[in-house]
Amino acid sequence: MPERQVTEVEGRRLVLSHLDKVLWPATGWTKGEALYYYAQAAPAMLPHLRRRPATLLRFPSGVGEEGFFAKNPPPGLPDWVRTMVVDSHEGPKERVTVDDLATLMALANGYALELHVPQWSADTGAGAHDRLVIDLDPGPGADITLCCRVALLIREELAADGLTAHPKTSGSKGLHLYAALRPADASAVVGYARALAERLAAAHPGQVVHRMAKNLRRGKVFVDWSQNSTAKTTAAPYTLRATAVPGVSTPLSWAEVESCGSPAELAFTPEQVLARIAEHGDLLAPLLAGAGELPG
C-alpha cells in the first residue's frame, strides 16, 4: 500500500498516510483498519459527537507507547474542520467539533484513536448540560459483571425520577449509563449525580462506593458522578479504546446487561461492533430521541 493516499470524503480532500502502520502491536491492527472502522461506524457515531468539543487521545507511535490527551486542534488539520471556543481555567481555547465524516477521518488519520466528549454541546453552552452520565468503574477484585448489577439499581433509581437510562460499555473495564436531559444547570446535574451515588453507596455498601479514594474500591464499583462536571469528558459512543486488544465503547441492550455472566460477554472487537450496527442499528439512538426533566 502506498505511504500516502489521496482520497475525497464528502467532497473534502484528505491525504491519508502510513495506512500499514501497526497501532495495536498485540494484534497487528493497523491505522488503515482503524480508519476503516471509523468510516463504517460513522453513521451511528456522529450524532453522539456533533457540536460537542472533543478531547482527543492520540497515539502517534501506537498503543503501548506513550499517548497524550489533546484538547487543542492538532497541527496539520485541514482548515475546513469546524472548531468552537471554550472557556477554560487558562482562558478561551479552541476545540474541534466532530460534526462530519471528513473530520472524523482527518482526526483518526492524525492518530486520534480515542474521542471523548462532554455532557453539553455548542447548542446548550457549557453552563447547561443535556446529558447525565454515570461512570461505573470496577475496583480491584470486581469486574463488569458487578457493574451490570449496579447498573440495574441505577436504572431503577433514574426511572423513579422520570429519567431513562441507556447503557454502553466503557470499552475498557466498566460501564457508562446515560440519560437525556432537557438542558439543565451544570451544577444541578453534578449535584443530582453525586446524591444518587451517595444514596446507592449507603443502601449497598458491599457493592458501591461513591468516594474517589482508590483504597476504598476493592471488590466494589466506584460510581463516578464527577464525570458530569463541565470540564470533564467521557469516552464517546463507538470510540476505539487504546487497550492492548482494540476495544470499543459499545452501546448495549438492557437484556445484555441483565444476563451478563462474565466480562467476555461484553467485550467487543471493532468488527463485532460493526456487525452489531448492521444488525441492530444504533442501540443508543433513543438517547437522542427524547429528554427528561432533572428532578427539582
Automatic annotation (TrEMBL):
<protein>
    <submittedName>
        <fullName>Non-homologous end-joining DNA ligase</fullName>
        <ecNumber>6.5.1.1</ecNumber>
    </submittedName>
</protein>
<dbReference type="InterPro" id="IPR052171">
    <property type="entry name" value="NHEJ_LigD"/>
</dbReference>
<keyword id="KW-0436">Ligase</keyword>
<dbReference type="InterPro" id="IPR014145">
    <property type="entry name" value="LigD_pol_dom"/>
</dbReference>
<dbReference type="GO" id="GO:0003910">
    <property type="term" value="F:DNA ligase (ATP) activity"/>
</dbReference>
<feature type="domain" description="DNA ligase D polymerase">
    <location>
        <begin position="30"/>
        <end position="283"/>
    </location>
</feature>
<dbReference type="Pfam" id="PF21686">
    <property type="entry name" value="LigD_Prim-Pol"/>
</dbReference>
